[in-house]
C-alpha cells in the first residue's frame, strides 16, 4: 500500500531526477532535458500555486515510488480544465504502481477542488500510460494536438 503526501521544497531534486529520466523525457510532449535552474523555478512556483497539487507516493519503507501532479489550467476552450501527469521511479516500474498513484491522487484532487473532471493527455505510443489511466478508471475522450504534439485525451469525473 502506498501513502501520499504533498510535495515539499526538499522534494525538488527528486522531482528533477524523475522529470529528466530518459523514458519520462521520451514520453513527454517536450522531450528536451530540463535544466536544474528551470526546474527549480518551476517547482518553487508550483508548490505555492493554488492551481497545482503535487503529491509524492511512498511505499511501506518510506521509499519514494512516484508522483502525480494536477494542474488547473484555465484556457479559453476549457476554463476549469484539470490536467494530470504521473511518473513512477525507474526502480518501481512494471509493478502496477502507476494506476494506484493515479487513483489515490484523484481522490486527493477531489478533496482539494471538489467534484471535477480530470484530463490526461497521453502520447498515442505510450501504451503503458494508456493502460495505467484506463485501469484507474479513465475513459478515452478524444484526440488532441493541444500541446503541439498529437495526443489521446482520457477523462475521469471524480
Automatic annotation (TrEMBL):
Q: Does the keyword Thylakoid apply?
A: no
Gene Ontology MF, one: acyltransferase activity, transferring groups other than amino-acyl groups
Q: Which domain of life is it from?
A: Bacteria
Record-linked Pfam families? Acetyltransf_3 (PF13302)
Span of domain N-acetyltransferase: 2-158
Task: Tell me the PROSITE patterns matching this sequence.
Answer: GNAT (PS51186)
Keywords of the record, alphabetical order, are: Transferase
Q: Does the keyword Transferase apply?
A: yes
The record's listing under PANTHER family reads: GNAT-FAMILY ACETYLTRANSFERASE, SPERMIDINE N(1)-ACETYLTRANSFERASE
The molecule here is called GNAT family N-acetyltransferase
**Organism expressing this protein natively:** Spirosoma endbachense
Q: Taxonomic classification, please? A: Bacteria, Pseudomonadati, Bacteroidota, Cytophagia, Cytophagales
Amino acid at each position: 500500500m502506498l501513502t501520499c503526501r504533498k510535495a515539499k521544497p526538499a522534494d525538488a531534486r527528486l522531482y528533477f531526477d524523475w522529470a529528466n529520466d530518459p523514458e519520462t523525457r521520451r514520453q513527454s510532449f517536450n522531450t528536451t532535458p530540463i535544466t536544474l535552474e528551470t526546474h527549480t523555478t518551476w517547482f518553487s512556483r508550483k508548490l505555492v500555486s493554488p492551481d497545482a497539487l503535487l503529491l509524492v507516493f511512498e511505499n511501506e519503507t518510506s521509499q519514494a515510488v512516484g508522483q502525480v501532479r494536477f494542474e488547473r489550467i484555465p484556457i479559453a476552450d476549457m476554463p476549469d480544465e484539470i490536467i494530470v501527469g504521473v511518473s513512477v521511479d525507474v526502480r518501481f516500474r512494471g509493478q502496477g504502481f502507476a494506476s494506484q498513484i493515479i487513483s489515490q491522487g484523484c481522490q486527493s484532487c477531489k478533496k482539494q477542488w471538489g467534484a471535477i473532471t480530470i484530463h490526461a493527455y497521453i502520447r498515442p505510443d505510450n501504451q503503458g500510460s494508456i493502460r495505467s489511466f484506463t485501469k484507474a478508471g479513465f475513459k478515452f475522450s478524444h484526440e488532441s494536438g493541444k500541446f503541439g504534439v498529437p495526443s489521446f485525451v482520457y477523462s475521469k469525473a471524480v
